[in-house]
Design a protein that fits this description.
The protein is α/β, with parallel strands linked by helices. The protein has 9 helices and 7 strands, in the order αβαβαβαβαβαβααβα. Strands 3-2-1-4-6-5-7 form a 7-stranded mixed β-sheet, with helices on both faces.
Length: 285
């Protein structure tokens, strides 16, 4: 698949560069502060750095498109790409993209690639990425185009404004587009989320979501102790941020789920392991 033709650099308009103080003040003068808040317009500090941790395994068809979409988000970022032992040509694509990044003068995007020599699982790749990342806020981005990077600014707002330590993007809050797919997956997700809530005393609607954003100090404390190498990383992370009494916000996101024919990897065994992880980490770190 060819990468989408998305601009690499943020484009200035009559208000200035997106999310700068000048851009925000210009919009506020015409829309008012309340209007800007309703539309999700706010200033991001000039020295702010977002770390986008992307675990990757055999995503040759989607990874270049996904990285183009991430780079197009008008926020200064480091993309920490963790290839988890891909065998389908993904590694060659990542090497090329890293070389291109080193030769480009892109103040908004730095690409770093880390290779696992053997496949260990999503959790292992996420842990590696968190330990290497240096941004003020760190988020997880899957490489399969199910989640839309253009939603980063909206998800970041509660953290940047000092109201949250952690933000979860929920596929089930209801006001964003959501591809209709597997009913039993939906029920399983709701069951796992409810059980997780029983142990953590949170009221999340989507514990298994990919989009989890953490302040640097929160995830740097948690990451060295993460144990789960596969999809058990989701309940493990949730239990550990809940135990630390982090301020957690949940915001709606869109979701364009893919089928197993399109490469979806999670299966029923991961659901069973998630049950064990919910109980295990709900009781003790």
């Amino acid at each position: 698949m060819e990468p989408s033709s998305i601009a690499r650099f943020p484009q200035s308009d009559e208000h200035g560069y997106p999310y700068t103080t000048e851009w925000y003040e210009s919009l506020k003068s015409s829309l008012g502060e309340a209007g800007c808040r309703q539309l999700g317009f706010y200033p991001i500090p000039q020295d702010f750095l977002l770390s986008v941790v992307i675990p990757i395994f055999n995503e040759q068809k989607t990874v270049e498109n996904l990285i183009s979409q991430v780079k197009a988000v008008p926020i200064r970022k480091e993309l920490v790409l963790v290839d988890d032992g891909s065998t389908d040509g993904t590694r060659d694509i990542l090497k090329r993209l890293e070389e291109q990044s080193q030769s480009e003068q892109d103040a908004y995007n730095e690409i770093r690639v880390i290779f696992h020599e053997v496949n260990q699982g999503k959790g292992a790749a996420v842990r590696t990425g968190f330990l290497e990342a240096q941004g003020d806020v760190m988020l997880i981005q899957d490489a399969d185009l199910e989640y839309d990077p253009s939603e980063y600014p909206r998800l970041l707002q509660p953290i940047i404004e000092g109201r949250a330590d952690v933000v979860y993007g929920s596929r089930f809050l209801g006001d964003q587009p959501h591809r209709v797919l597997y009913y039993w997956h939906y029920l399983g997700n709701r069951f796992l989320t409810t059980l997780s809530n029983c142990f953590t005393n949170l009221n999340l609607t989507d514990m298994e979501t990919c989009y989890k954003l953490f302040k640097k100090d929160v995830i740097k404390e948690i990451a060295p102790g993460l144990c789960q190498n596969r999809f058990g990383i989701e309940p493990e992370l949730t239990a550990k941020v809940a135990r630390r009494r982090c301020r957690i916000f949940e915001m709606s996101i869109s979701y364009d789920g893919r089928t197993y024919d399109q490469g979806k990897k999670i299966g029923w065994k991961d659901g069973v392991k998630a049950l064990w992880c919910i109980v295990r980490y709900g009781l003790k770190d």
